[in-house]
């Protein structure tokens, strides 16, 4: 623990001081009496080069040690830190000793020094963080998760752990996973009805699809709160954009209106992109070069833009002007498609757009009804290249209006007794939004398959490791 | 959003400037022509007092507004910030206007100005964060969650989201919840065997009991990682110390031995307690006064102590000297009971103790075997008043030894193919530990029922909200 990470060693001034390098070998090259070993410990993108000048060693055992070195081997190397003559690396190590800690024989180790397909790497999820791409994804993910906490904590928000297991499907946001301790084998053979009184929670229970409703109970006590936790959808869609298990961030703010919500969302995204651009620069440069050109430019432009505000009604008018260009013809009342969202950001606004005041029919029951009786104070934040990255709204805080809306949708107000209580007792205007964390990581890294931006993706037929 | 929180207003220098207060009324008192309203917005423990001098108002509507004010009502008050003559509050507001935003009629609102039992408050989990106790718990919880991230991020650790749904019960740590999309009603009536090929993941799947094994896969790529997420136990134990759903923190460090692990755990706890003592002072003073005397002193003493190190064998010797005092007679090979752990911290060491090198029979399969062949490099961190707060170990990094241990326990090495791969390819010594977040919060707040330190507790028969 007292031995610095390679990331730290990289920033030292090279004055011939002794350093110890611990990590995994990425490459070994030999050139006459020189052996070059590049070591990575995952703390940063770059490897540190360790050079062995065999003409300087009197002990022959060094050759035996070096013979065991191949890609994936774990080593401890000591030597002197010196300036590097090579481009792109500030320092290197003139090595004086090496211990091979754990071998990785070239015949068996799946990660050899060549380019592997992302599909292949998905099959070895337990090893893929050892590659350039997945190491970089992991670092960006970690840094941005922390940036989310920093953003909210520094603004007086309290982090709330909303429940994962829930007995209510309040949001009705889609298919849910059931959680049970019933013995399914015995149940199947029983031929009888299910007796939920025997189940762990005494009733049907599920994995949460959103922490929002519970977050609202805390926002109406602590004023500003946020959640950041796993959510689940049992949707049978095998795409590059859906996961059965994903992490969501959901701030909720009391005494806030839609305008405050828009301001918060804009500041939030700019903060995250700024952190990525600043603190994950090396990793982003790799993504920009090898995964998707232009991502740094896009992030830079979002950070420096002023988000355009546009009502849904105005957005549809813009789209209708160009209706011929779309596969799905836009009309008032339609859900905006990806192609529409891209058009709004890339062609109409030339930057991020917040679309507000959607028809109530295409949005959730808890969104505040406008005076026109037709639209709700919803907002979707759209960014160039991706489309929707954030969805949110001001909430309906008027008891009667909310109850009517629940009934209108054929739901039972009694199921929402506690949610309605927030409107019965000291109700306040409030607003919030949701950000899918993996969508954010896709956007920042330029990766295209959502299964590649979470350590162990869960999807139809996939729960390995 | 641009209106400061009460926490921020409390720190302003009172110079008669205009301020706007938004929050929920805790109390209203009347004294001749003066009306005192205490408002809380959950941003801090303290209420801010707003004084209405009715002799100064010409508009009679003020009385109508004030008549609607009762406990739980949401209000917006504006006035001038002035020094407070009252003890314990630096500032107060000489109010010039008030709007009642949301009412809370005294007949219906469950949270009146009196002391409510914790049992009663558990039934209104959606409102209990509006009380002194649960507001304070929520703030401490939020601050310490952030402190966990700060501690690890500043030390070069990467945050890893290990999976929640898993198809393997690798750790064998206890009863698991099954996750399914099978139609249980149809299944029950079928009278046939369960066909898991029809289930969402194509096989039996569960909620995770620990992210450790997956964290190890990332530690052996990124060197230093930690998890912080929900974990689950379907144990049918209805106690004040168990939850079915709880949050765990699990750091894992490559190239670390047991000694490094002990050092890390000690620094970690001291950091967390320091943050609580410094940043949650007001809340802790409340707990110290009203919930459990002496908690501040205990935390202070832990922060200033040097943790005692003791092998399990030595610990048992100490306990045997005093065997008569225990309900469970201590002997070499026994699991340490709560009473033993308390004795070690309070009587033997007079402070925190890290007990190491437990018999392999009472510890998990992945812990590194000592040369004696009988004990493993496990460690439990014990603190006064609570007992075990952290459990961890150096991991078995030798492929053959680990395989033998798995077989010895009647488990199947093939189920652990990916975990064993970490030992096949570039294995390194590594170590880590787990901290139950709710146990930490219990310790810091002095609360005694674990259901009171998580927003929505899940336990046998309990999945409300």
TrEMBL record, chains A, B:
<dbReference type="InterPro" id="IPR004365">
    <property type="entry name" value="NA-bd_OB_tRNA"/>
</dbReference>
<comment type="similarity">
    <text>Belongs to the class-II aminoacyl-tRNA synthetase family.</text>
</comment>
<keyword id="KW-0547">Nucleotide-binding</keyword>
<dbReference type="InterPro" id="IPR002312">
    <property type="entry name" value="Asp/Asn-tRNA-synth_IIb"/>
</dbReference>
<dbReference type="InterPro" id="IPR045864">
    <property type="entry name" value="aa-tRNA-synth_II/BPL/LPL"/>
</dbReference>
<keyword id="KW-0963">Cytoplasm</keyword>
<dbReference type="GO" id="GO:0004816">
    <property type="term" value="F:asparagine-tRNA ligase activity"/>
</dbReference>
<dbReference type="GO" id="GO:0003676">
    <property type="term" value="F:nucleic acid binding"/>
</dbReference>
<comment type="subunit">
    <text>Homodimer.</text>
</comment>
<dbReference type="GO" id="GO:0005737">
    <property type="term" value="C:cytoplasm"/>
</dbReference>
<dbReference type="Pfam" id="PF01336">
    <property type="entry name" value="tRNA_anti-codon"/>
</dbReference>
<feature type="domain" description="Aminoacyl-transfer RNA synthetases class-II family profile">
    <location>
        <begin position="139"/>
        <end position="455"/>
    </location>
</feature>
<protein>
    <recommendedName>
        <fullName>Asparagine--tRNA ligase</fullName>
        <ecNumber>6.1.1.22</ecNumber>
    </recommendedName>
</protein>
<dbReference type="InterPro" id="IPR006195">
    <property type="entry name" value="aa-tRNA-synth_II"/>
</dbReference>
<dbReference type="InterPro" id="IPR004522">
    <property type="entry name" value="Asn-tRNA-ligase"/>
</dbReference>
<dbReference type="GO" id="GO:0005524">
    <property type="term" value="F:ATP binding"/>
</dbReference>
<keyword id="KW-0436">Ligase</keyword>
<dbReference type="Pfam" id="PF00152">
    <property type="entry name" value="tRNA-synt_2"/>
</dbReference>
<dbReference type="InterPro" id="IPR004364">
    <property type="entry name" value="Aa-tRNA-synt_II"/>
</dbReference>
<dbReference type="GO" id="GO:0006421">
    <property type="term" value="P:asparaginyl-tRNA aminoacylation"/>
</dbReference>
<dbReference type="InterPro" id="IPR012340">
    <property type="entry name" value="NA-bd_OB-fold"/>
</dbReference>
<keyword id="KW-0648">Protein biosynthesis</keyword>
<keyword id="KW-0030">Aminoacyl-tRNA synthetase</keyword>
<keyword id="KW-0067">ATP-binding</keyword>
